[in-house]
Write a structure and sequence with these properties.
It is a single chain. It contains 4 helices and 2 strands, in the order αααββα. The protein has about 110 residues and is mostly helical. It has one domain: Cytochrome c-like domain (Cytochrome Bc1 Complex, Chain D, domain 2, Orthogonal Bundle). A two-stranded antiparallel ribbon has the order 1-2. A hairpin with a 6-residue loop joins β1 and β2. α3 packs across α4. The radius of gyration is 13 Å and the shape is globular. The termini are far apart. The chain binds heme C. The site of heme C has 28 residues, from α3, β1, β2 and α4.
Length: about 110
């Protein structure tokens, strides 16, 4: 039950961000709010998505990495990357946070 649902969500997101599919060049549609403070390659107010991917790929248990990312995305975070803090992203649902966490972990890293 879970897998087809996830697949549908991914299709919907790919359709939303069409013509470009979910790709490293173009953050998916639901990430639009995030890119006020984040970019893929360079640190802005917040760390670059690729840097985040690199750090969390280092965690041996991918489920744990995804769980931590999801928690930070939903609740915000501070003290992990620098002095700035990320406020809670209240407009993001749990399901979206899960997808974003998976997307981050799927990014290629240097
Ligand atoms: C107002 C600016 C701002 C917005 C908007 C924002 N972030 Fe952040 N984000 C930050 C900052 C600053 C940090 C570093 C916080 C720290 O040092 O712990 C951060 C850290 C993170 C981290 C790493 C957290 C960790 O536990 O290591 C992730 C993942 C992340 N942001 C994802 C997102 C996503 C996804 C969105 C959109 C839903 C988003 N951010 C929106 C500023 C922002």
């Amino acid at each position: 039950m879970k897998r087809p649902l996830l697949a549908c969500l991914l299709c919907a997101i790919a359709a939303l961000s069409s013509p470009k599919e979910l790709s490293a060049q173009e953050p998916p549609a639901w990430a639009r709010h995030c890119i006020y403070c984040h970019s893929l390659e360079e640190a802005q107010a917040g760390p670059a998505f690729r840097e985040i991917a690199a750090r969390y790929r280092g965690i041996r248990d991918p489920a744990l990495a995804a769980k931590q990312l999801k928690k930070s995305i939903l609740e915000g975070s501070s003290g992990r990357w620098g002095v700035a803090r990320m406020p809670a992203n209240v407009q993001i649902s749990e399901a979206e946070a899960e997808l974003i966490a998976q997307w981050l972990l799927s990014l290629s890293t240097p």
